[in-house]
Amino acid sequence: MDQVFAPLLADIEGLLDSGPEPAHAARIMAMLGAGVPEAQLAHMTLYAETLPKGREPPFTAAERCLHFLWDALETLPQKLMVNFAFPYRRLLAARLFKSCGQGLICEENVRFNFGRYLSLGDHVFFNRGIFLDTKGGLSIGCAAALAEDVRVFSHGHSESSHMERSYAPVTIGDYVKVYSGATILPGVTIGAQAIVAAGSLVNRDVPPNMVVAGTPAKVIRERRTGGRSGEELDHLWLF
What pTM did the predictor assign? Predict the structure, then answer.
């Protein structure tokens, strides 16, 4: 860990371990140079918790503060300091997500609506500008990577009534690569080691080790693994 930021991150971790309540969230924001009054944090409502899934069950104070701290980083210059931002997001993810493996690499402007329905394996990589709709559940396997501007959706609305919602989980397997601008629709499973080409619209399951492309996405060939699999594929995302 970077020795300049290590003491700051240790202090933040201590506050999170004590319970991410409004008072602690206010202290963390102050440490980052952003004064947010504790009284405001104690009375805030986040957009996600106004939605039906936000009341099943309602957000806890801790969950609310963790969501706030995640998104608030995007308003601060520290979001660009990867030697702070990466370990900071890991601290939050470990407490906010349904599960989060080790070694998460998360670039700036990665948004999601419900951490409680997001499960990550080890060494997942998120590039910039990703949106994850986790309402129906989203599971991402070990060493999987999502490139810039990927969109994942796990819920939809009826055409006859927008109030009628449907939910379907999305699963992205181990060692999958989803390239820039791709969109994954509800209920899709992407098999291990598959590749989704840039700009694709994935509306059906993708078999393992296959490359899909297009709108809608179709299998175009098998992944060229050179006989490698798993860790041999060298999905190494920075540090």
Answer: 0.94
Burial of 80 per CB tally in 10 Å (0-12, 13-18, 19+): exposed
Q: At residue 237, does pLDDT exceed 80?
A: no
Q: Which residue has the tokens 């599971």?
A: 139
> Domains in the chain, please, with CATH?
1-96 (no CATH), 99-239 (2.160.10.10)
Task: Respond yes or no on whether the N-terminal peptide bond of residue 57 is cis (omega within 30° of 0).
Answer: yes
| 231 — pLDDT class (breaks 50, 70, 90) | very high
**Orientation angle between helical segments 22-31 and 6-17, nearest 10 degrees:** 170
Could you tell me how many residues make up the chain? 239
pLDDT of the residue at 3: 82
Cα end-to-end span (Å), the chain: 10
- 2-35 in b/e form (b: 16+ CB < 10 A) is eeebeebbeebbebbeeebbbebbbebbeebeee
Select which of 24, 157, 162, 235 is catalytic: 157
* Residue 131, beta-bridge partner list: 111, 151
Question: Do the beta carbons of residue 195 and residue 213 sit within 8 Å?
Answer: no
In the annotation, is 162 catalytic?
Answer: no
**pLDDT for residue 23 is more than 80:** yes
pLDDT(239) > 70: no
Q: Which of 209, 206, 201 is nearest to 179 (CA)?
A: 201
Long-range contacts of 213-219 (CB under 8 A, 24+ apart): 217/182
